[in-house]
Design the sequence.
C-alpha cells in the first residue's frame, strides 16, 4: 500500500516542477520552407536589434496554420505572400486587389507591410533534359502529354489558387500526387515524378537546372513577399514594430535566390545567413551565437522531455480514475470510452491545429501548452483502456470473495481490484509513454520544440544528419522509456502476480 | 437462520423456488443435489452475494437487507471450490487482510493466525508464500483460515474439496470433521457427493430444480428416499459409494 502513495507522490512532484515562465516579447513565426525561415529569422533579429526580446518559431507549418496563430496571438508576425493572402487565406471574401486585402486585414487587427522587394510565385518546373526530350516549354504543352506524373505540394493541391483552378484554367487532364515540397524535389531528381510546382525563388531551380514552364495563359497571380503583423504590436512594442518595417523594399529577387541557395548549399544555419544579410545591407551589426550540435541536442532533449512529462503524468493521474469510473458506472463508462476512442482517431496534426483556436479562446498562447494538451488527450486512451480492461478481466471469483468477506467498497477497490488490474494498467501506461514520445516530435510543427525541430529542418534542407539528430534520440528515448517502465512494473505489479506456478 | 419462502430467478430460469429452511445453531448441514439444482445460489443468497426476488432471510430476528449486509457477512466464513485466495497477496495477508481493515491490534492478529495455523495444520513459514506457490490442499487450508479469522458463527462451504486429488481430499476431510467437532459452528456444506454429505452432516437437504426435495438425517435419506428423484439420486450415488 505504502508504495502506491510513494509512486503517487513522485508523479505529482514530477508534474509540478515549474515550467519556464511564459515568454515576454515578440514572437515571430515562419512557414516550413527555407525562404520563409530566413525571412522569419531576419524579422526576429530586427526586433532584437531594437532591444526588444524576440523569439522565432521556425517552420511551424503551412499558411493557414500561421495565419490562425497570428489571429490568436500565438505569434505576432510572420512573412507571407500577397497572392496567398488574397487567394487562399481570404479567398471567400473575393477581394479584388492588394489594397482591398490590406483594408480587410486592418479590420481583423492585422497590418500587411509593404512588399519586401521580391516576388515569389508559383510555377511548374521540369528537369531540363526531360522537358527538352518531350518538347515542353509552356504549361499548355502539358496537354499533349497526359501521362506525365505531376507531383505537387500538399498545400498547392488543396489551395483555391493552386491546382484546382490551374487544372480548370488550362484544362489539364493529369492525375496528381500530393507530397511534401522538399520531397518533391528529391522525387523529381530521381525521375519518380515529371512535373512539380516550384516557388520562383527556390534555390533548387538553379541547382537542379530546372526548366520553368511558361504560364502562357496567365494563370499565376503575383506573390509579393510581405510581413503580416498584429496591429497591437504598434502599441505593445512600438520600437519593434518600426524595426520590422525596415525590411520593406529591401530584398530584391536575386538576393533572395542567393540567400536560399546559400542556405541549401552550405550548412550555415538560417540565423547566420539572415544576420550576414542584415549586417551587409542594413548595416545592423548582428551577433548570432551558433550553438554546437551537442548544445542543440541538449536543448531539444529538454524541450522534448518537457512535452512528455507535462502530458503523460497528468494523463496517468486522470486516466486511471477515469478508467475505474468507466468500469464501475457502466452508463458514463460507455461515453468515456467512446470519447477517448474518438480523440484517438483524429490525426495528430489535425488535433494540434484544431486545438489552436480552442486554446486561444481559453486565453492560452503558449505553443508548448497547446502541444501538451494534445499529447495529454492522445495519452488518455491506452491508460483508460488499460485500467478498464484490467478491472473487467478480474475473475469475478475474487470480487465476490472480497464482498463475501464483508470488505468495504473502497478497500475492495484499493486493496484487491486495482492491484489485480495493475499489470494491464501498466501496459496501458507504457503504450501511452512510447506513443507520447513519438507524437511529441509533431510539437515542432506548432513551435513547441523538441526532437521534431531537427527532423523538420533536415527534411527541409535535405540534410540526413540533421534528421537523424532528431530521429535517433527520439527512438532512444522511447527505448529508454520502455526499459524504465519495465523496471517500474516490477515495483508496481505485486509479486504474487509475477510468479510462475511452482511444480 | 430462517429462510422464508425464498424465490430467485436469473432471466427466464427459476433457480430457487419457495424455499423454507430453518437452520439450527451448532449443527452441520449438507445441501446436496445435482449440478445446476440451485444449491450454490442458495448459499450466495445466505450471505447476500445475490438477492431473492421474493421472501426473506433472517438471523436472530434480524432480516438481511442491503443496509445490514456487510455487518451480516462478518458473521459468516465462506470457502469456495478453488479457495478464492487473492493472488497478489501472500497467504498470511489473505488470512489477515480483513482483521487489518477492521483495525484489530497486530499482536491479537498474530496470535489468532498462530492458533488457526495449528488448527488447520499449516506451517507458519508456508504462510509467507503466494497462492500460486501453494498446493491445492494448502490453498484450501489457507482459505479456511481466512474464513475463520474473525471467528464467525457460520461456516459456508461451496464444494471446497472437489478440486483436490483423492489422497489430499481424504486427509482434509478427516481434519475438517475433527475441526467441526471442536469448533461448534453452524456449518452449511454444499456438495453433490452423498458420501461427503453423510461423512459431515447432521442433516442432509436434497435440492432438485430449486426446491427442497427431501430433508433429514443422511441415513434416513439413504434408507427411505421419499420421491422418485430422491430414489434415483441415492441409488446412483450409492453404487459409487460402495466402490469407494
Sequence:
Amino acid at each position: 500500500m505504502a508504495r502506491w502513495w510513494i509512486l503517487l507522490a513522485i508523479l505529482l512532484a514530477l508534474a509540478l516542477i515549474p515550467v519556464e515562465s511564459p515568454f515576454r516579447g515578440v514572437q515571430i513565426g515562419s512557414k516550413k520552407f527555407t525562404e520563409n525561415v530566413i525571412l522569419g529569422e531576419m524579422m526576429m533579429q530586427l526586433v532584437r536589434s531594437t532591444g526588444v526580446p524576440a523569439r522565432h518559431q521556425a517552420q511551424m507549418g503551412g499558411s493557414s496554420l500561421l495565419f490562425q496563430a497570428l489571429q490568436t496571438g500565438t505569434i505576432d508576425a510572420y512573412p507571407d505572400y500577397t497572392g496567398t493572402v488574397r487567394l487562399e487565406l481570404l479567398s471567400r471574401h473575393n477581394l479584388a486587389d492588394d489594397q482591398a486585402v490590406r483594408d480587410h486585414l486592418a479590420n481583423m487587427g492585422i497590418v500587411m507591410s509593404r512588399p519586401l522587394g521580391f516576388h515569389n510565385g508559383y510555377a511548374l518546373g521540369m528537369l531540363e533534359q526531360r522537358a527538352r526530350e518531350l518538347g515542353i516549354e509552356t504549361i499548355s504543352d502539358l496537354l499533349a502529354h497526359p501521362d506525365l506524373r505531376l507531383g505537387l505540394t500538399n498545400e498547392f493541391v488543396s489551395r483555391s489558387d493552386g491546382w484546382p483552378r490551374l487544372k480548370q484554367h488550362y484544362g489539364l487532364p493529369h492525375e496528381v500526387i500530393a507530397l511534401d515540397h522538399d520531397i518533391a524535389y528529391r522525387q523529381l531528381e530521381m525521375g519518380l515524378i515529371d512535373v512539380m510546382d516550384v516557388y520562383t525563388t527556390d534555390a533548387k531551380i538553379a541547382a537542379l537546372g530546372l526548366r520553368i514552364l511558361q504560364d502562357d495563359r496567365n494563370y499565376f497571380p503575383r506573390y509579393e513577399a510581405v510581413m503580416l503583423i498584429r496591429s497591437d504590436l504598434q502599441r505593445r512594442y512600438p520600437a519593434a514594430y518600426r524595426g520590422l518595417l525596415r525590411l520593406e523594399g529591401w530584398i530584391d529577387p536575386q538576393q533572395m535566390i542567393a540567400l536560399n541557395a546559400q542556405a541549401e548549399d552550405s550548412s550555415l544555419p538560417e540565423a547566420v545567413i539572415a544576420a550576414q544579410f542584415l549586417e551587409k545591407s542594413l548595416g545592423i551589426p548582428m551577433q548570432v551565437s551558433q550553438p554546437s550540435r551537442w548544445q542543440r541536442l541538449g536543448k531539444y532533449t529538454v524541450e522534448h522531455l518537457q512535452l512528455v512529462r507535462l502530458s503523460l503524468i497528468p494523463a496517468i493521474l486522470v486516466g486511471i480514475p477515469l478508467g475505474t469510473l468507466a468500469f464501475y458506472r457502466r452508463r458514463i463508462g460507455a461515453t468515456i470510452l467512446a470519447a477517448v476512442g474518438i480523440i484517438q482517431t483524429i490525426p495528430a496534426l489535425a488535433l494540434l491545429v484544431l486545438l489552436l483556436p480552442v486554446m486561444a479562446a481559453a486565453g492560452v498562447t503558449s505553443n508548448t501548452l497547446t502541444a501538451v494538451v494534445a499529447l495529454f488527450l492522445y495519452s488518455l486512451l491506452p491508460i483508460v483502456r488499460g485500467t478498464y480492461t484490467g478491472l473487467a478481466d478480474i475473475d469475478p471469483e475474487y470480487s465476490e470473495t472480497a464482498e463475501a468477506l464483508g470488505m468495504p467498497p473502497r478497500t475492495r477497490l484499493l486493496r484487491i481490484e486495482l492491484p489485480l488490474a495493475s499489470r494491464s494498467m501498466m501496459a496501458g501506461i507504457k503504450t501511452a509513454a512510447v506513443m507520447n514520445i513519438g507524437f511529441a516530435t509533431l510539437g515542432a510543427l506548432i513551435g513547441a520544440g523538441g526532437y521534431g525541430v531537427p527532423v523538420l529542418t533536415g527534411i527541409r534542407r535535405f540534410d540526413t544528419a540533421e534528421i537523424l539528430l532528431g530521429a535517433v534520440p527520439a527512438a532512444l528515448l522511447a527505448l529508454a522509456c520502455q526499459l524504465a517502465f519495465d523496471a517500474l512494473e516490477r515495483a508496481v505489479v505485486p509479486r504474487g502476480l509475477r510468479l510462475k506456478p511452482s511444480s | 437462520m430462517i429462510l422464508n419462502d425464498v424465490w430467485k430467478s436469473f432471466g427466464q430460469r427459476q433457480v430457487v423456488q419457495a424455499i423454507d429452511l430453518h437452520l439450527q445453531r451448532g449443527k452441520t448441514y449438507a445441501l446436496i443435489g445435482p449440478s445446476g439444482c440451485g444449491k450454490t445460489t442458495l448459499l450466495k443468497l445466505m450471505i447476500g452475494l445475490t438477492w431473492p426476488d421474493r421472501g426473506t432471510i433472517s438471523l436472530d430476528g434480524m432480516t438481511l437487507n442491503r443496509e445490514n449486509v456487510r455487518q451480516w457477512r462478518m458473521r459468516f466464513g465462506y470457502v469456495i471450490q478453488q479457495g478464492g485466495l487473492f493472488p497478489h497477496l501472500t497467504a498470511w495477508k489473505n488470512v489477515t487482510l480483513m482483521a487489518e481493515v477492521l483495525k484489530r491490534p497486530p499482536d491479537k492478529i498474530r496470535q489468532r493466525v498462530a492458533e488457526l495455523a495449528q488448527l488447520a495444520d499449516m506451517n507458519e513459514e508456508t504462510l509467507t508464500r503466494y497462492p500460486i506457490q501453494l498446493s491445492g490442499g494448502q490453498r484450501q487450508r489457507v482459505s479456511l483460515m481466512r474464513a475463520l479469522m474473525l471467528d464467525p458463527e457460520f461456516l459456508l462451504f461451496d464444494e471446497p474439496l472437489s478440486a483436490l486429488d483423492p489422497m489430499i481430499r481424504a486427509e482434509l476431510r478427516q481434519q475438517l470433521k475433527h475441526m467441526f467437532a471442536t469448533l461448534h459452528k453452524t456449518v452449511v456444506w454444499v456438495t453433490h457427493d452423498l458420501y461427503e454429505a453423510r461423512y459431515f452432516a447432521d442433516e442432509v437437504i436434497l435440492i432438485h430444480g430449486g426446491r427442497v426435495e427431501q430433508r433429514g438425517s443422511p441415513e434416513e435419506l439413504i434408507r427411505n428416499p421419499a420421491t422418485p428423484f430422491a430414489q434415483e439420486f441415492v441409488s446412483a450415488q450409492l453404487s459409487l459409494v460402495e466402490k469407494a
User: Anything to note?
Assistant: The two ends of chain B are 34 Å apart (CA to CA).
